[in-house]
Amino acid sequence: MALIYKASEKDKEKKSRNKSKKDSSFSKNKKKPKGKNGSFHDIAHKIRPGAGLSVEPKGVRFADKDKDEEALVVLRRHPATNVPWLILMLLMILTVSPAIHFGWLSNLTAGLQITLFYAWLVLALLVGWSGLLTWYFNVSVISDKRVIDIDFHDLIYREVSDANLVKIEDVTHNMGGLFGIIFNFGDVYIQTAGAKPTIEFLKVPRPAEVSSTLRKLREEAAK
């Protein structure tokens, strides 16, 4: 009886080990989707994320997004492109101190001086706020179905350009200027057979890697 009991215990342990192996293999297979979507994800993961470049971000919504469509790469202009409006905003704020010190507005009444002082500060903050919103809402998206470029003009008018991956005909990029070379950002031009012949990703990080990723996605979509 003892031998039978020990044998049954060994069988149970063996079955439990086999079951755990099956569960682990199932979970591994589940993490890596098969087919084109799996290939798209593999291609997207070869690009390095960084400032202004996100790979497979969660909870991303964009214009006319399909239910089964997933964002592979989301691009914004490189943060270094924000330097001009940041400098302008700071200069506007810093000019207040010398204006008071040297009495540039001394010929005006005290009430008018205070009004101009606050109006100038509000204008400086509006410059910064406008620059930040423009940078944040101007987005380029590469999904598992298409490329989308969303541009906001003066924070009022929105322009959306998109094209299916299979309609991409050619992808080129360029880098120019000292800042572009130092911080590795530039423009990516996507020639398509869609309604808009050229879609532009401007001042985006790692333009060479983005161009290479788009070519690989186009080839995978054409299979």
In short:
The chain contains seven helices and eight strands; from the N terminus they run ααββαααββββαββα. By secondary structure, it is of the alpha+beta class. Strand 3 (139-143) and strand 4 (146-153) form a beta hairpin.
Strand content: 15-25%
**Helix-strand string:** HHEEHHHEEEEHEEH
Per CATH, the class of the largest domain reads Mainly Beta
Global structural class: alpha+beta
Instruction: State the major sheet.
Output: 5 strands, antiparallel
What is the number of independent domains?
2
Number of helices: 7
Portion of residues within helices = 40-55%
CATH architecture call of the largest domain? Roll
User: How many DSSP E strands?
Assistant: 8
Q: How would you state the average pLDDT, rounded?
A: 83
Spatial ordering of strands, largest sheet: 1-2-3-4-5
Terminal residue distance: 63 Å
Q: Which consecutive residue ranges, at least 5 long each, have pLDDT under 50?
A: 1-7, 21-35
Q: Which shape, going by the Cα principal axes?
A: elongated
Radius of gyration: 28 Å
CATH topology of the largest domain: PH-domain like
Structural overview:
Strand 4 and strand 5 form a beta hairpin. The chain is elongated, with a radius of gyration of 28 Å. It is built from seven helices and eight strands; from the N terminus they run ααββαααββββαββα. It has a five-stranded antiparallel β-sheet. It has a three-stranded antiparallel β-sheet with strand order 6-7-8. With 223 residues, the chain is of the alpha+beta class. The protein has helices at residues 2-31, 35-44, 83-94, 96-101, 110-137, 177-183, 207-221; strands at 53-55, 71-75, 139-143, 146-153, 157-164, 168-174, 185-192, 198-205. The N and C termini lie far apart (63 Å). The chain folds into two domains: 40-60 and 69-77 and 138-221, PH-domain like, CATH 2.30.29; 83-133.
